[in-house]
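ENTRY TYPE: paired fold submission
RECORD: A
CONTENT: sequence, then structure tokens
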Amino acid sequence: MSEAPLPRSWLYVPASRPELFPKALAGPAEAVILDLEDAVPPHAKVAARNALAALLDLPRGKPVWVRANHPATPWGESDVAALADLPVDGVRLPKSENPELVAEVAGRLRRPVHLLLESALGVENALALARSSTWVTGIALGEADLLADLAATEASALGYARGRVVSAARAAGLASPVMSVYTALDDLDGLRADTRAARAVGFFGRAVVHPRQVPIVNDAFTPTESEVRAARRIVATMRSAEDAGLGAQVDESGRFVDPAVAHQARLVLALAERDDLRTPPTADHPEDPS
């Protein structure tokens, strides 16, 4: 059995707003995150946690995760205890910094865990956090909190952290990180450009906080027709090189194609195939059977 494709869009829904959950399940977001943390005010956190069981009984055709409160908060310990017994697909742990604490909490949850790195210490501990437990299946940034911790106001300050989290995730054998929320809800052009840039530097998927952001994020992580055609050319060139006993070859556009370049092209084709968005193969570039 093949693994389920990675979600492109992860829609946060406040667990204190249960009426929004069925809409999220029916919408185009490919995963839903019920939020017990930032989106829920302190006075509503216990009620939100208590509402999870009923929400998770609803039929669902997509992954449903829960973002818990940090274990050191007044609500975090109870969140972990409750989530260990609920049918969630995974748990997001905010403000992760301490690998030993993560290992202890993940061992109690016994389900996939994504760690949110939201401080300078979390970023510097990225690799140790990614390797802290076999239940950790992903790490990601919480960029708004990280900017505050860095005493920075410009997104350019996040360049190091983004590279660090991508590298640490891959070094630990985890999936590419999910990109953080884009907070300017009305700036859809900015969201599109920022998401495409994130994909280009190694992120896959993005957390969103409003349904209007979902189609743009899904599109940004979908290969374009030109990307698919280029990938087919690369794969065909590599196959031709292999048939000729060569390790690499220059394609018709003058690009040097070696196994690493071909691997990247096959990733593009796999993503396009998953969404049935492939352009028809041509006689010059037939479908790659591999």
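RECORD: B
CONTENT: sequence, then structure tokens
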Amino acid sequence: MQTEHEIRIDLAAAFRLIYEMDMHESVANHLSAAVSQDGKQFLMNRRWMHFSNVTASSLQLLNSEDDSIMQSNEAPDPSAWCIHGNVHRSLPEARVILHVHSTYATALSVLKDPRILPLDNNTARFYERIAYDTDFGGIASSDEEGKRIGDSFTGKKALMMGNHGVTVLGESVAEAFEDLYYLEKACKTMVLAYSTGQPLNVLPHTLARETAASWDEFRGQSDAHFEQLKEMLTKKDCSYRE
């Protein structure tokens, strides 16, 4: 099991990588990681801190059972508290929560039918493994909305948030980051395929399900990919580790 310090370094790296891959948005969007067994104590980026400036030590330690922080000068973004606080509280197995408004995922989320269809290996990765929430109610800021979003996962580790963006859950930063990486690639494939105006060659149900299941054999690649990306970051700017 990782120490809090190790989790801080990995989460800070995820912020920098999402910035490098242009999946960030202004000083909005949030990533979090639980550091307690029950998931209620978690790390998250401070309010309005740009992803490129996040460091391991700058991450804020929060407790989803203590909302007194919201009445202080250290209050996190209300929408972040609404979503991340509620999901960490209700889903202790969701050790890491990555919520972004990345370009292609958001583009797909605004379609009347935001489903990721099984067209190739990457899109099939999410076949029957992503939940869809099409009940967008504006910027999430209420406890009720946070609970509703948490319930929307319905046992899945990824959520397409209609008219909003995406959220990915994982047991580690590396695992969640890998799913987010492939989710954005899958959404890009969908958007580009739709843009051709040609009929889509959707994989049959059985083959799509088998392809999705075959990805489980490659779960170890998430750690290898993330570690090498961290090495790239360290060579370029190791300040994320501070």
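NOTES ON RECORD B: The helical segments are 4-20, 78-90, 103-109, 121-124, 143-152, 173-195, 205-214, 221-236. The mean pLDDT is 96.
STATUS: closed
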